[in-house]
Amino acid sequence: MAVNSELDFIQGTPAVVVDRVSMTYRTTSRSRSAGRTAASNLFGARQPGSRTKSVDVPALKEVSLVVQHGESLGIIGRNGSGKSTLLKLVGGQVPPSTGAVYATSTPVMLGVNAALIPGLSGDQNIVLGCLAMGMTRGQINAKYDEIVELSGLEDAIHMPMKSYSAGMGSRLRFAIAAAIDPEILIIDEALNTGDAQFKDRTRKKMMELLEQAGTVFLVSHSMATIADLCNRVIWLDQGELVADGDPAPVVKWYRLFTQKLADGDRIGALKLRRRMLNNLQVADVSDRNSLRRARS
Ligand SMILES: Nc1ncnc2c1ncn2[C@@H]1O[C@H](COP(=O)(O)OP(=O)(O)OP(=O)(O)O)[C@@H](O)[C@H]1O
Q: Facing residues of 282 across strands?
């Protein structure tokens, strides 16, 4: 559902407001002359003339977004379009270069909030992860069995985490993160790491979260997962919000766009992108404390 009128906005119950947020990373880049000597640099001493310089990478360009309670927001886009950056900003992992993010409760980023220790067993990590998320001993005891069951790790729960496969580790992280029934849950491609049985459990848990009027942010390259789990989708491209709305049409236009690019029809793809941008209605937060409105 897009924010499409002032009335809708005021009557809604926003969980997260992204207010004109942009993000520029500062990193280093080797100069062209340095590139020519790259191979020799790898194997030997630095060559004269090789230089690195600071460059700015604009990852997100003034994105505004209002996400309501109960919405499950899918975020799609090509590699490097800014999806993970948006999640990191919403989750508070990095501060934005400009703008601000407001949330009604602390968003829990799956796999990041649960800072687990490889040398400890799965069950010890459950306690550790839950404590790190601010749960009390009593709350951990009450949720413990549910976490173990959701992880599907069975007897492996007593083995050290360093003996787990990547998928097993993801299952444990998901189970821990979901245990606090976060009002706002952020998931970055995590659904793609587990096996079929785990994906099924994850889907059920996501449905439960939605029923509890939780808010979910989900980044995935799987359009089937997005269509299955989300009731709203945004499409990011080169750090810009290109489309925002019901999953079926947004996914359809995004697929068409990538198909055109794959076919070498760059002009057709750009025309489609421009048409989507022209149709986009952008949320605008005009006053940080009270009045918020939408502009087209
Ligand atoms: N820590 C960083 N330092 C410098 N540049 C970064 C950093 N993190 C991301 N970027 C750049 O920001 C842009 C957006 O990256 P981001 O990871 O948000 O994209 P994404 O849409 O999640 O991509 P993917 O689908 O490949 O995961 C890219 O150009 C990337 O190179």
A: 295
**Tens digits of per-residue pLDDT, 6-17?**
434 444 788 999
User: Could you tell me the distance, in angstroms and rounded to a whole number, from the CA of residue 141 to the centre of ligand 1?
Assistant: 39
What ranges do the domains of the chain cover?
25-57, 65-107+182-296, 111-181
Helix (H, G, I), strand (E, B) or coil at 87: helix
ipTM of the complex: 0.98
Q: What is the mean pLDDT of residues 234-254?
A: 96
Q: Which architecture does CATH list for 65-107+182-296?
A: 3-Layer(aba) Sandwich (3.40)
- Number of CB atoms found within 10 A of residue 278's CB: 7
The residue whose CB lies within 8 Å of the most ligand 1 atoms, and thus the one to mutate among 21, 85, 193, is 85
- Ligand 1 centroid, distance to 170 Cα (angstroms): 21
Helix (H, G, I), strand (E, B) or coil at 235: strand
Q: Is 235 in the pocket of ligand 1 (CB under 6 A)?
A: no
Task: Please check the confidence at residue 292 and state whether its pLDDT lies above 60.
Answer: no
Cα first-last separation, the chain: 15
> What pTM, to 2 d.p., does this model score?
0.78
Ligand 1 atom closest to residue 77's alpha carbon, by position in its atom list = 21
User: In ligand 1, which atom is closest to the CA atom of 57?
Assistant: 5
**Do the Cβ atoms of 236 and 219 come closer than 8 Å?**
no
Ligand 1 centroid, distance to 30 Cα (angstroms): 18
